[in-house]
Design a protein that fits this description.
Layout: H1 3-13, E1 19-22, H2 27-36, H3 43-54, H4 57-63, E2 64-69, H5 71-74, H6 84-90, E3 94-98, E4 103-105, E5 113-115, H7 121-130, E6 135-142, H8 151-170, E7 174-181, H9 189-209, E8 218-219, H10 236-250, E9 257-260, H11 267-280, E10 286-291, H12 293-303, H13 310-327, H14 334-340
Parallel strand pairs: 1-2, 1-10, 2-3, 3-6, 6-7, 7-8, 8-9, 9-10
Antiparallel strand pairs: 4-5
Helix pairs in contact: 4-13, 8-9, 9-10, 10-11, 11-12, 11-13, 12-13
The structure holds 1,3-dihydroxyacetonephosphate.
Length: about 350
């Protein structure tokens, strides 16, 4: 393992004022997004849409350190024949790849899932490295509900995440370790805190057991928020405070950076929460974004599958990228949102 090189890539992924674009929606998920904007999901429409993001040259160069791709996209060419990976690299951003194979029901644990994809992973990592991937992503999902999560679910997912991370580092690829405690449900913010703490403690114990070098990884956690159906909303200050508290209790300082998922928060909440944490300052790791929905909802709506809307969609993407880039520095202000509206 070349730890210096892994660390160099991990640091670049969380460089000041930059974050990650999660554009790794599976074919089923991107179809759902396209359905919402009345656009058919085909190889070409998926290519056109993702190409418009990656060709938002200024936004990519300034605010996007890396892009997480789906298997189809890492092999796809832009309309002019240039591999999309090259378009991303030319914009000064790092290509990455989602390598998990999705969620499957966890036996004997009703309502819980385990992430699959360890079989054959080393071979797939070698291939993806050849296609240009510098980092990878594996998402584990922990749901909160009556009697869940169970320790079976937390432990099984933490173990799989650590096995994945070790394989990545052994093949010279920086792992994004993503344990996502879902926002779905009626639970309050303190239940989210407890489930997040439990999950992160188990994940770091398993990473140690599998000999993963923390300097060569990026953590992608959820923020500590109330469930979507909870009657009691938490303020921006409370989310920032509780998220920082759980991270300080669980994430060693050797980890170069933490890049949050947006998880179904509104665009502006995802930005405001990140900003509030960074305004606190004095943190041992960089805190940035690795957003899917919170970066793409606006450009998807503006694009609506029409070629004549590409420039508008690129402006919408550039705006969200800039807002989150500022939040990664603790320099965002809500007036900046209103001015753009
Ligand atoms: P969201 O920001 O939409 O949660 O997506 C991030 C991601 O990569 C989930 O795995």
């Amino acid at each position: 393992m070349n730890l210096a090189e892994l660390n160099r890539v991990a640091e670049a992924m969380v460089a000041p004022g930059r974050g990650i674009l999660a554009a790794d929606e599976s074919s089923a998920t991107i179809k759902k997004r396209f359905d919402a904007i009345g656009t058919e999901s085909t190889d070409n429409t998926r290519r056109d849409y993702r190409e418009l993001l990656f060709r938002s040259t200024e936004a990519m160069a300034k605010y996007i350190s890396g892009v997480i791709l789906y298997d189809e996209t890492i092999r796809q060419n832009a309309k002019d024949g240039t591999p999309l990976v090259k378009v991303i690299e030319k914009a000064g951003s790092l290509p990455g790849i989602k390598v998990d194979k999705g969620l499957k029901p966890l036996p004997f644990c009703p309502g819980e899932v385990v992430t699959e994809g360890l079989d054959g992973l080393r071979e797939r990592l070698v291939e993806y490295r050849g296609l240009g991937a510098k980092f990878a992503k594996w998402r584990a999902v922990i749901d909160i509900g009556a009697g869940i999560p169970t320790s079976t679910c937390v432990d099984t997912n933490a173990h799989a995440l650590a096995r994945y991370a070790a394989l990545c580092q052994d093949e010279g690829i920086v792992p994004i370790v993503e344990p996502e405690v879902l926002m779905d449900g009626e639970h309050d913010i303190d239940r989210c805190y407890a489930a997040t703490e439990w999950t992160l403690k188990r994940v770091f114990a398993e990473l140690y057991q599998q000999r993963v070098a923390l300097e060569g990884m990026v953590l992608k956690p959820n923020m500590v928020v109330a469930g979507k159906q909870c009657g009691k909303r938490a303020s921006v200050e409370e989310v920032a405070d509780k998220t920082l508290r759980v991270l300080k209790a669980c994430v060693p300082a050797a980890v170069p950076g933490i890049a949050f998922l947006s998880g179904g928060q509104s665009d502006e909440d995802a930005t405001a929460h990140l900003d509030a944490m960074n305004k606190t300052g004095g943190l041992p790791w960089r805190l940035t974004f690795s957003y899917g929905r919170a970066l793409q909802a606006a450009p998807q709506k503006a694009w609506a599958g029409k070629a004549e809307n590409v420039a508008g969609a690129q402006r919408a993407f550039a705006h969200r990228a800039m807002m989150n880039g500022l939040a990664a520095l603790g320099q965002w202000r809500s007036e900046l949102e209103r001015k753009a509206a």
